[in-house]
Design goal:
With 230 residues, the protein is an alpha+beta fold. Helices cover 42% and strands 14% of the residues. The protein has a single domain, classed as 3-Layer(aba) Sandwich (L-fuculose-1-phosphate Aldolase). It contains seven helices and eight strands, in the order H-E-E-E-E-H-E-H-H-E-H-E-E-H-H. An eight-stranded mixed sheet has the order 4-3-2-1-5-8-7-6, sandwiched between helices. Helix 2 runs parallel beside helix 5. 43% of the residues are buried.
C-alpha cells in the first residue's frame, strides 16, 4: 500500500496546501449552520496525483486541524493520516472517479435541505437564484445506506439527469454538493440550504410559481458566464 512518502515533492506540497484548505472550510460549515456536532464532511481532490483530502470520522469540528485531515487514494485507501477517514470516503472516491471535472465534494445534514430529502421531493425552481446556481430544481437522489460507495453512485446517477446542478438531496439522508474545488462545493451547500429554507417558507404561503425552463437557461447562462469577476 502506497504512503505519502512514495510521492514526489510536488504532490507532498499540494497535500500540505489542500489539508489547510479542507480544514479551514469545515469551519465554514459551522458558520453557515450547515452541520452539528461531528456530522458532515468536506473533501478536495489533488491536481498532481489521484488523491484527495477528507475529514476524519467522528471528530468534533473544533478539534480539526490541517494535520488531522486524512489523505486517501481514489479507491478510498488511506495514504496518510493518523485518524480513520470519514464514513462517506468511499462515496467521495466514487464521485471523483466518475466525475473527472469535480475537485470538491461536501456533505451536510443542513436542516431545510434535509427536510426536503426526508420527504423525497425536489426543491422546485421558484427563484431566479436557483436558476443561476442550479439550472433548475435541486434534485432528490435515491435512498442508499451509509458506509459504501452506494451513496456516491446515487449522486452521480442523479447529476447525470441534472447536469447543471451542483447539489443532490439524497433521500432520507441529506445534501451532497460538488464543485471545481472544495470551496465551490461548500458554496453550493450553503446555497442549497438557503433555497431550501426560502422555498419551504414560500410553500407555507401558497403554491410555488415555478420558473419556465427557457428562462432558467437564460439565468444560468448569465450567472455562469457573465456575472462576477473574470
Amino acid at each position: 500500500m502506497a504512503t505519502l512518502a512514495d510521492y514526489g515533492p510536488e504532490v507532498r506540497a499540494e497535500v500540505k496546501q489542500v489539508r489547510e484548505v479542507v480544514s479551514n472550510l469545515h469551519q465554514q460549515l459551522i458558520k453557515w449552520n450547515l452541520v452539528v456536532w461531528t456530522a458532515g464532511n468536506v473533501s478536495q481532490r489533488l491536481h498532481t496525483a489521484d488523491l484527495f483530502v477528507i475529514k476524519p470520522s467522528g471528530l468534533r469540528y473544533e478539534y480539526l486541524t490541517p494535520s488531522s485531515m486524512v489523505v486517501v487514494d481514489l479507491d478510498g485507501n488511506v495514504v496518510d493520516g493518523a485518524e480513520a477517514p470519514s464514513s462517506d470516503t468511499a462515496s467521495h472516491a466514487y464521485i471523483y472517479r466518475n466525475m473527472p471535472d469535480v475537485y470538491g465534494v461536501v456533505h451536510t445534514h443542513s436542516t431545510y435541505a434535509t427536510a426536503w430529502a426526508a420527504t423525497g421531493q425536489n426543491i422546485p425552481c421558484g427563484l431566479t437564484m436557483m436558476g443561476d446556481e442550479f439550472g433548475g430544481p435541486v434534485p432528490v437522489g435515491p435512498f442508499r445506506l451509509i458506509g459504501s460507495e452506494a451513496i456516491g453512485k446515487g449522486v452521480v446517477e442523479t447529476l447525470k439527469r441534472y447536469p447543471k446542478s451542483p447539489a443532490v438531496l439524497m433521500q432520507n439522508h441529506g445534501p451532497f454538493t460538488i464543485g471545481k474545488d472544495a470551496e465551490g462545493a461548500v458554496k453550493a451547500a450553503a446555497m442549497t440550504e438557503e433555497v431550501a429554507h426560502t422555498m419551504w417558507a414560500a410553500r407555507q404561503l401558497g403554491d410555488i410559481i415555478e420558473i419556465d425552463q427557457s428562462d432558467i437557461d437564460k439565468l444560468n447562462d448569465r450567472y455562469q458566464n457573465v456575472y462576477g469577476q473574470h
